[in-house]
Description:
mainly alpha; two-stranded antiparallel ribbon
Amino acid sequence: MDLAYLWFFIVGFLFIGYFVLDGFDFGVGMSLPFLSKDDTDRRVLINTIGPIWDLNETWVIVAGASLFAAFPEWYATLFSGFYLALLLILLALIVRGVSFEYRHKNPDSRWKKWFDGMIIVGSAVPALLWGVAFANIVQGVELDASFTYSGGLLPLLNPYALLGGLTTLLLFFTHGVIFVSLKTDGELRECARVLATKSGILTIVVAATFLVWTTLAYGSFLSGAVAVIAAVALIASYVLNLRGREGWAFGFMAFTIATAVLSLFLALFPDVMPASNNPAYSLTIENASSSNYTLTVMTWTALFALPLVLAYQGWTYWIFRKRVTRATVLVSAH
């Protein structure tokens, strides 16, 4: 396989990892006003992702760096044309990260309420805008002969892209709520399971609509087949959550997000940034990639580094695998 095509799927794998892992982080953050009845509950929710949220977030840094190195033309077009949307995502991630670190610095309830609000907003904005961005990439935008998009933010907020944003928002929210039921116990665990049941119905409807639209308008047979697998996995996750099997429900939801993102990359293939106004202006894997020497060096680096990263991430999750309870949070406060 040509290295440019290999790196297209490596970049896809990195974004899949990011959406699966940081996706439930976003969901936990968005669930604060729905699941917590007091400050102890909010501390339990935040502590479920406390040891891992920053590790999950590094996936987007690696994905962005790989995109820059492997496909500089794609990176330049994406980050210049989608600048405001990506800036909003970055600011939201910064606000969320700061809030996690500073929330507990002052016992005042107003101080905590302020940072709780920033966690909610800092989780919801990226969850929405990542879907908007990827939907626009698949749909295509108007590019000129120099592969430049200058339409601004408003044209990106079209019905298809907004549906994509709503899809990722709901997928991440349900993913995070199922994670809460997996990591907590007692009343909070049961409330999370019930909330996942309610949000799961809406998620199935919205995600199915988006995947059908994508397949019919922009997809291929292969991307459509993967989209069907994603839909089946989403329904399986819903049923398993109903039965109280939160571990399996979480696993199937992660698989749903992975296959849904894979279907978007397959719908995009072999383009990386289609031009909706003129196919001749489209960025493809071949005309957007770096030199073969650069890709060769990157491939050898990834061959040695990626297994270490995956092993370290797996070890981290194993160390922090136990449930977080109100009792343990109250004890840690003394």
